[in-house]
Amino acid sequence: MQKYLTRRGKGLGLRLGVRTTGCSGLAYKLEYVDELTPEDQMFESHGVKVFVDPKSLAYIDGTELDFAREGLNEGFKFNNPNVKDECGCGESFRV
C-alpha cells in the first residue's frame, strides 16, 4: 500500500470509515487523507497511517485491514469481529 501512496505524491495516509448503505446497513469507505482532522484516531502499520473518525471507530474497533493480491485481482480485505450479518453480495454489513 505504501507504494500507492508514494506514487500518488501527496497525502498523509488512508481514512477508514463506515457509511450507511446497502441491504445490511453499513459499508466500509476508504479514501486518501490530505489533511488531518483533530478528532481522528491514527493507527500505523507497515509504514502506512490509517485514520478513523470517532463515529466509525465504534463499528470497526478490532478490525484487521489487509491489502491482498489473488491472481490478477487485488484489494482490501476486512476482518471485523463486530460483524453480525452481511448481505449476500458482501458489500454491506450489520453490527
Describe what you observe in this structure.
- The chain is mostly beta strands and 95 residues long.
- It has a single domain, classed as Hypothetical Protein Aq_1857, Chain: A.
- Helix content is 15%, strand content 48%.
- The protein has helices at residues 2-8, 54-60, and strands spanning 13-21, 25-33, 41-45, 48-52, 64-70, 73-79, 85-86, 93-94.
- The chain has a 4-stranded mixed sheet with strand order 2-1-4-3. Strands 5-6 form a two-stranded antiparallel ribbon. Strands 7-8 form a two-stranded antiparallel ribbon.
Number of domains: 1
End-to-end C-alpha gap: 27 Å
Q: What multimeric state do the chains show? A: single chain
N-to-C order of helices and strands: HEEEEHEEEE
Notable characteristics:
single chain, 95 residues, mainly beta, Hypothetical Protein Aq_1857, Chain: A, four-stranded mixed β-sheet, two-stranded antiparallel ribbon, 2 helices, 48% strand, globular
Structure summary:
This protein is mostly beta strands.
What is the topological layout?
Layout: H1 2-8, E1 13-21, E2 25-33, E3 41-45, E4 48-52, H2 54-60, E5 64-70, E6 73-79, E7 85-86, E8 93-94
Parallel strand pairs: 1-4
Antiparallel strand pairs: 1-2, 3-4, 5-6, 7-8
GO biological process, one term: iron-sulfur cluster assembly
GO molecular function: 2 iron, 2 sulfur cluster binding; metal ion binding
Pfam families: Fe-S_biosyn (PF01521)
